[in-house]
């Protein structure tokens, strides 16, 4: 018997990965803005502070570029132009499945109702779903980027469960982020399966402190959960 009535999946870095390199997008931002490059993609990732502000993704990126510019003594840089260039360079259709993702999704659909809960807005995430061919793979889809509150707040999980007519204590959420997926699921009363891109990277938070019910090295291991495995 299936241990869950509903299974929720995250999208980015869980079911799929972006095939564009950070270097391609970072360089493209400068090319589009017509500015001489400074810094590296890693500088921008380190400068971005928490999740994007709701409804102002460009402003969030511009703040990051301003911090990188200050680090490299580049005064008066048009950070907003760099942010626009960054957004224009990203190809949201350049995605592919993580190993085992298609099989995990198929197994989930054989055992339970299935939902997608992603922090991205519909205008970006729907492109990825179409590119992956899984637009119709879910019984419910929640684009939390279009909601007032995103993961780890319980609201996106609550909406998915309401759409599925499922109870939290009989549901599982699968995601790559300890902070947004595992902690968010727990706040909403769900069990969580954690499937990071890489386990044990230096500087990563301690997964034990988040206590996911399952730790998966690959989504290829996910069907065993549904068959009563560890």
Could you name the key traits of this structure?
230 residues, single chain, Rossmann fold, alpha/beta, two-stranded antiparallel ribbon
Short recap of the structure:
It comes from Haloferax massiliensis. The chain is α/β, with parallel strands linked by helices.
Describe the structure.
The chain has 230 residues and is of the alpha/beta class. The chain folds into 2 domains: 6-18 and 94-227, HAD superfamily/HAD-like (Rossmann fold, 3-Layer(aba) Sandwich); 22-89. The chain contains 10 helices and 8 strands. It has helices at 22-33, 41-47, 57-71, 79-89, 101-111, 122-132, 155-164, 178-187, 207-210, 222-226, and strands at residues 6-9, 16-18, 95-97, 113-118, 140-143, 171-175, 191-194, 214-215. The strands form 2 sheets. It has a 6-stranded parallel β-sheet with strand order 5-4-1-6-7-8. A two-stranded antiparallel ribbon has the order 2-3. β7 (191-194), α9 (207-210) and β8 form a beta-alpha-beta unit. The longest helix has 15 residues, at 57-71. The protein is elongated and about 55 Å long. The protein starts with 5 loop residues before the first strand and ends with a helix. 37% of the residues are buried. The mean pLDDT is 93. This is Pyrimidine 5'-nucleotidase YjjG. Keywords: Hydrolase, Magnesium. Belongs to the HAD-like hydrolase superfamily. InterPro entries: HAD-like_hydrolase, HAD-like_sf, HAD-SF_hydro_IA, HAD_sf.
Helix content: 40-55%
Which of globular, elongated, flat, extended, rod-shaped describes the shape?
elongated
User: What is the averaged pLDDT score?
Assistant: 93
- Biggest beta-sheet profile: 6 strands, parallel
Task: Determine the CATH superfamily of the largest domain.
Answer: HAD superfamily/HAD-like
| Strand percentage | 5-15%
Q: In CATH, what is the class of the largest domain?
A: Alpha Beta
Helices and strands, in N-to-C order?
EEHHHHEHEHEHEHEHEH
Count of individual domains: 2
Pfam families: Hydrolase
Keywords: Hydrolase, Magnesium
Protein name: Pyrimidine 5'-nucleotidase YjjG
Cofactor: Mg(2+)
């Amino acid at each position: 018997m299936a241990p869950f009535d509903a299974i929720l999946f995250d999208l980015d870095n869980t079911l799929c990965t972006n095939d564009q390199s950070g270097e391609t997008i970072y360089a493209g931002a400068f090319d589009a803005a017509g500015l001489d490059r400074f810094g590296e993609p890693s500088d921008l990732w380190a400068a971005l502070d928490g999740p994007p502000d709701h409804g102002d993704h460009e402003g969030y990126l511009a703040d990051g570029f301003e911090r990188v510019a200050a680090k490299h003594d580049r005064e008066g840089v048009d950070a907003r132009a760099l942010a626009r260039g960054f957004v224009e360079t990203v190809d949201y259709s350049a995605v592919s499945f993580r190993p085992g993702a298609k099989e995990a999704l198929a197994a989930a659909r054989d055992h339970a109702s299935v939902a997608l809960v992603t922090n991205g807005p519909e205008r970006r995430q729907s492109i990825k779903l179409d590119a992956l061919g899984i637009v119709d793979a879910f019984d419910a889809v929640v684009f939390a980027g279009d909601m007032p509150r995103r993961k780890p707040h319980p609201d996106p999980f609550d909406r998915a469960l309401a759409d599925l007519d499922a109870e939290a204590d009989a549901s599982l959420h699968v995601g790559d982020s300890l902070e947004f997926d595992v902690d968010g699921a727990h706040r909403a009363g769900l069990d969580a399966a954690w499937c990071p891109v890489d386990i044990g990277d230096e500087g990563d938070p301690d997964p034990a402190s988040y206590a996911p019910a399952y730790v998966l090295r690959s989504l290829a291991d996910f069907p065993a959960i549904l068959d009563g495995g560890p």
